[in-house]
Amino acid sequence: REVVSLLVACWQLGAVPAPVVELYRESELRQIVTAVQPAVVASVAEYRSFAHAELFDDLLGDVGVPAEKLLVDGERTGWTSWSALVASAPTASPRVSPTSPALLLFTSGTTSAPKVVVHTHRSLLAEARQVTRLWRWTAADVSHIATPLAHISGLVRGVLGPLQAGGAVRTRQRWDPELVALDLAAGDVSFSGVPG
Question: Among residues 52, 86, 93, 133, which is most buried (max CB within 10 A)?
């Protein structure tokens, strides 16, 4: 849920988020940080037994990018905590053009280094509207999403489409068929996965 909150906050501030797949390590992240030169890096301390915040500490210093650091789970020296960010005063939202960059996503890099794909506010809205019409989502629908939100399908089909329809989203860190079955049986979600 923090990822969705951060994306929305970036858009409201006129910032351009560049979410990365949590499986990326030093090589891919070095290329991305060098290309993007982020003003802020948000991370978890650890995920799937890998110290992401520690890697960012080392990497940002090595690359020479003086980014602010936001830790979404807990406390770490030199990082702003999620609770401190949420408790801070809101910032005024600038006007953003529909053709302004809204999101930077990176290809998987199967043939070489990851390459950036720039999405505009207009293109994301068009994609969200398209999947909303295709799947006939309504405000009564609740999405169960366990697909990486650094991938366009996870973000548009799992989050933006349902929210654009007025529905809700339940995010999960990973796909767990038992949780999906429980959520579906309890009537807590309308659909799960990323319809293809």
Answer: 52
> Rounded distance, CA 53 to CA 86, Å?
19
| Cβ atoms of residues 143 and 189 within 8 Å | yes
Q: How many CA atoms are closer than 13 Å to the CA of 69, on its beta-carbon side?
A: 24
Give residues with Cβ within 8 angstroms of 147, minimum separation 6. Answer: 153, 154, 157, 158, 175, 193, 194
Q: Are 161 and 147 in contact (CB under 8 A)?
A: no
- pLDDT of 68 reads 96
Q: What is the pLDDT of residues 78-121, one digit of tens each?
A: 999 999 998 987 777 788 899 999 999 988 766 677 788 999 99
